Amino acid sequence: MAKTKEINHKERSHALLSASAANRWLACTPSARLEDEKPDSTSVFAEEGTLAHEIAELKLTKYFHPMAKSTFTRRLNKFKKRELYQDEMLKHTETYLDYIKELTINLEQQPYAAIEKQVDFSHIAPEGFGTADCIIVADQTLYVNDFKYGKGIPVSAEDNPQMKLYALGAYTAYSLLFDIQKVHMSIVQPRLDNISEFEMTVSDLLAWGDEIKPIAEKAFKGEGEFVPGEHCKFCKLKATCRARADQFTALDDFGGKKPPELSNAEVGQVLEKAKSIESWVKALKDYALKESLKGKEIPGWKAVAGRGSRGYVDVDKAFKQLKEAGIDEALLYERTPLTVPKLEKELGAKQYRELLEEPGHVQKSPGKPTLAPAKDKRMAVTNEVSAEEDFK
Ligand code: SF4
């Protein structure tokens, strides 16, 4: 389908000013150099994500370029043998593939596609480069697509600096070969049902690049002010950063000569800070545990063994023995009905409607009022009942 094939099998590596950390070093310029001094850490989740990306890469390659079915199956089977492989990876990578298919199916021109392509944006951020999951060029548009396997928080493509840096790198690489007027950026997070898209003109993208260039240069030199905020969440200094700690300890300012009770405005401010305090305290606890386990002292705290657990060595063997000993099966298993959302997922929307919703087996009740940030999409509710409604 596509004109050329370009796959980058280079190990994923990171620049000092990486695109994925751009929201951090753009807001807090000294963070990049300081993070660079800390060792890299990986997690099972990150490794799962890498495997899911490899499967997605294989599927997209097969979609854009001719590949024998036997080659595809052999490569997929190799992934299936990996320790972290889970069947659900097939489903989620399929959602991503479906999105890319939908994106390309109505294009007037035959698309050019590059998968897992290393893009260089060092003309904006010194030594900056990154790996874009899927770049497509067609119909005067540069499509930059990002597949995120995580299921932590939904990420928006709107004005997303990571996406814009990839786009700047891709534009530099392809603008001599193709006429590009527009940039379309998308983030696909199948495990969160999140597909976010954002579009901008090339001139706006280039203007943004010029705007951040001096900030990137400052970040590269490790200069500027520490600015704590939402972006601290994934910073390697998130636990021990003084600027972050100062931000929270400044809550004491509410004392002094002010009235003994907080005003509603102050309650709002404290809750705003509390959103980040929770994750900061968790980061501090994780850090203190690691230090304690290394034998270092954190005054007032120590590491202890957590509550142990018991499990079957081989559940089949154990239950076989119980049954042979005459223990009634009813005693061994619990039978609980699936919840409505789970059953809907199992049955599919149509059957769920026909068998459960339409005959009146499902009752909907409003959720208990809960506090949410003002930007939450749900409508605000109050306990106030209007006189008219009361009368009715
Ligand atoms: S924790 Fe926040 S304030 Fe501190 S260096 Fe990292 S990004 Fe900057």
From TrEMBL:
<feature type="region of interest" description="Disordered">
    <location>
        <begin position="357"/>
        <end position="392"/>
    </location>
</feature>
<dbReference type="InterPro" id="IPR021229">
    <property type="entry name" value="DUF2800"/>
</dbReference>
<dbReference type="Pfam" id="PF10926">
    <property type="entry name" value="DUF2800"/>
</dbReference>
<protein>
    <submittedName>
        <fullName>Nuclease</fullName>
    </submittedName>
</protein>
<dbReference type="InterPro" id="IPR011604">
    <property type="entry name" value="PDDEXK-like_dom_sf"/>
</dbReference>
